[in-house]
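From the shared-data thread, chain only:
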Amino acid sequence: MMTVSNMPASCLREANRKANKQREHKENLYEYRVNVNHAIGVFKAQLIRVIIEEDRIVRRYLMNELIRCMERRVVPIRPNREIVRNKRRLNAKFHHNHKSNC
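Structure, as tokens:
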């Protein structure tokens, strides 16, 4: 599990580094980072293809393509963005375990 969680993390770090380097001279309102949900989905879909490849050069090319695909999907980091979630009261008077079967 540690290997599985560390591999996308290292790819994310590399994709973030490349995405920040591309946006270095642009005057954006916010900072940007790679969309983690998309990156994990892409990683999950392409991992087997990268692992079973026997040729080192092709494997390196596939990993670079994977990182390139990750770095294309960036999202802005908006400061002080916090959504308060209100807890709703359940409408049932009794817990479901206390209901009769008939």
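The longest strand covers residues 31-34.
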